[in-house]
Amino acid sequence: MIVTEGRTLVESSEPGEKPERRRYPRGEITDTTIRLHTVVDAEILDISRAGALFKCDYRLAVGDRVQIRTLLAGQPFVAWVSVRWTRRDRTSGGAGALRVGTTFVSLDENAARTIRSLVKS
């Protein structure tokens, strides 16, 4: 092992292999997946106590879970929804725009109160 400028260089036992130049040793991980979060701009078209309809250019699949974070009626609004259906949006000029119908899977009391203030009984 060779140490230089705070980096550990591991000499290879295999001829022709380059020495490891990473600062910290790595361990191999198998059979493990991770979830990456993506931020996508979307337009909420309507909302009810059961769910929301929005439009976006990001392709979602039925069953996907999405977190909505926005301001509604001047109040912070955060809710988890499940995608129930998607359709191409024929009203916009954007070729990739989709309408996405969702149902709420997690809604705190503040979010529920905001929805009640927006929805006519």
Structural description of this entry:
By secondary structure, the chain is mainly beta. It has a domain at 42-118: Thrombin, subunit H, CATH 2.40.10. It has one helix spanning 109-118, and strands at residues 2-4, 7-9, 42-47, 52-56, 65-72, 75-88, 98-107. A hairpin with a 2-residue loop joins β1 (2-4) and β2. The longest helix has 10 residues, at 109-118. The radius of gyration is 24 Å and the shape is elongated.
Write the layout of secondary structure elements.
Layout: E1 2-4, E2 7-9, E3 42-47, E4 52-56, E5 65-72, E6 75-88, E7 98-107, H1 109-118
Antiparallel strand pairs: 1-2, 3-4, 4-7, 5-6, 6-7
Brief descriptors of the model:
disordered N terminus; elongated; 121 residues; five-stranded antiparallel β-sheet; 7 strands; 40% strand
Tell me how many strands there are: 7
Overall body shape:
elongated
CATH topology of the domain at 42-118: Thrombin, subunit H
Mean pLDDT: 83
Secondary structure class reads mainly beta
CATH superfamily of the domain at 42-118: predicted glycosyltransferase like domains
Instruction: Supply Rg.
Output: 24 Å
In helices, the fraction of residues equals: under 10%
CATH-defined architecture of the domain at 42-118: Beta Barrel
Q: Termini, distance in Å?
A: 73 Å
Number of helices: 1
Strand percentage lies at 35-45%
What is the CATH class of the domain at 42-118? Mainly Beta
Order of helices and strands: EEEEEEEH
Low-confidence stretches: 1-5
Most strands sheet: 5 strands, antiparallel
Trace the largest sheet across and list its strands: 3-4-7-6-5
